Prior knowledge:
The structure is a single chain. The protein is built from 12 helices and no strands. The N and C termini lie far apart (62 Å). It is 63% helix and 0% strand. This is Membrane progestin receptor beta. Pfam families: HlyIII.
Amino acid sequence: MTLNYIRSLGPRMLSYLQSDNNSRQVELLTSHQMPELLKAPYIFTGYRPVGQPWKYYFSSLLTLHNESVNVWTHVGGFWLVLLRLCHYFTQLTTYDKMIWPVVCFGFCSLLNLILSSVAHLLHSKSCWYHYVLFLMDYMGVTTFCFGSGVAAMYATSSKFYHEFMYTAFLPVNVFLGLFSFYTCCLAKFHLTHQHTKRKVSMMAGIATHGFFAASPMFSRYMQCLSESECSLASLNHLTLFLMLTFICAVSFSVHVPESLMPGSFDVIGHGHQIFHILAVLVMLGMVRAMDIDINETKTGEYLEPNLLHITLSLMVLLVLEVATLMYYAQRSVLRCVARDALDSTIVDANEEQTNSPTPCSESLSRTHSTSNCANLYLDIDEIERKKEI
């Protein structure tokens, strides 16, 4: 099998699977036909056009394009995690104090999977929806980190760490959740795919939160090393979860294998799809870790989860993240779209030329738009200063 043959597999597969759907599906586009904002690194084909009716994007759930696997890995993952949680709930009762960290983790995980699936399914509607939906996706990721921290603290922690951090853990978990979400917002709005700092910024924020969320597990290793009768093999369930989490983070930060053979993994096999699969495995690994620690190692005997504190902390985080999302949507997106109608000179100083860029506002409704929505990266304060001049 030659290298050229491998490179052609992606486009050939897409063309073959679409052959029976051409009569009812709008033609997919290449990266050259898409706004810069909607392009994925090293992915050249399989893009859905912007500006189509909502029915088109919802029905694309059942057609093949370069987001299909991203959607279905988390749609399928949603049901896998839900079924695993339902099976686990049969072993607990509402009077069991250990049910509350499990419920919190389950809610955060399922919310993450739902928001991710919706973002990948519908973001091609327009540049504006791309921004808003992926901010919702980041909100799901940071909420999942919060839920993982709750599960680690109240189901897998050592007694010493639990007593030492009992008062401070939830407030710090909320703060780092908001911090990581805010970092993702900054990176999304002010840096493009071409900026290496974008991925680094996102990873720095999420990794900081993730490391703190996993800190109760690290305390178990310290406790085990200090006890002669404890074997590290007894913590294999935690080791598996941490290893999966690390591999998952690495898969998100690199574009492999598509960066090695650009255009060959446009539909199936690119790095973000692998990241999605690993994310589901991480969730299932956490449920397994909680199951073992609660039912076998009996860590719940000395842990004290508080339903009121957990619920209030989660609600505070969600409210603050929604407020942050609304702020960025209004300031950096809606006003960018509105400025085209208020002052067209800001969009292009040479608007009289026939080849001038299409305003971002027009891209919201134009089919096959190739507008330069990278203008959304412009700083709003700079725009207002130009208007005053």
